[in-house]
Amino acid sequence: QVQLVESGGGLVQAGGSLRLSCAASGRTFDRYTMGWFRQAPGKDREFVAGILWIGDRAYYADSVKDRCTISRDNDKNTLYLQMNSLKSEDTAVYYCAAADQKMSLIPAAFDYWGQGTQATVSS
């Protein structure tokens, strides 16, 4: 079992940046496909970015492509999401998720979820 703890959220002005982190427990972090999802008030949870456990290939939602970078440090059991040029529509709770040895980024593929970290972008 994996426990995920997000951090790095906060209040930032439009155009600013945030770096989210997700610390994972356990010793087998490198076997998990990892993802970032977000949920804004009154909206469904949506995919933001993901990185596969084989090859470290990254995928992004169109809404954040060119503004966000997902990365992982397997030695530190940590996942990151660097978000730049933030917009008010990026305001949401951001969740980290882990999928055990899966090559899918759909929400149903993820086995473990963190509690989320709030990111608020003021215009």
What is the alpha-carbon Rg in Å?
Answer: 13 Å
Q: Quick one: biggest sheet?
A: 7 strands, mixed
Q: How many helices in DSSP terms?
A: 0
Q: Give the SSE string.
A: EEEEEEEEEEE
Strand content: over 45%
Structural class: mainly beta
Shape: globular
Mean pLDDT: 95
Task: State the end-to-end distance.
Answer: 40 Å
Q: Which runs of at least 5 residues are low in confidence (pLDDT < 50)? A: none
Q: Using DSSP, what is the number of strands?
A: 11
* Proportion of residues in helical segments: under 10%
Element layout with pairings:
Blueprint: E1 4-7, E2 10-13, E3 18-24, E4 32-39, E5 46-51, E6 58-60, E7 68-73, E8 78-83, E9 92-100, E10 112-113, E11 117-122
Parallel strand pairs: 2-11
Antiparallel strand pairs: 1-3, 3-8, 4-5, 4-9, 5-6, 7-8, 9-10, 9-11
Description:
It is a single chain. The mean pLDDT is 95. The chain is mainly β and 123 residues long. The strands form two sheets. Strands 2, 4, 5, 6, 9, 10 and 11 form a seven-stranded mixed beta sheet that branches. A four-stranded antiparallel beta sheet has the order 1-3-8-7, with no helix packed on it. Helix content is 0%, strand content 50%. The chain has strands at residues 4-7, 10-13, 18-24, 32-39, 46-51, 58-60, 68-73, 78-83, 92-100, 112-113, 117-122. It contains no helices and eleven strands.
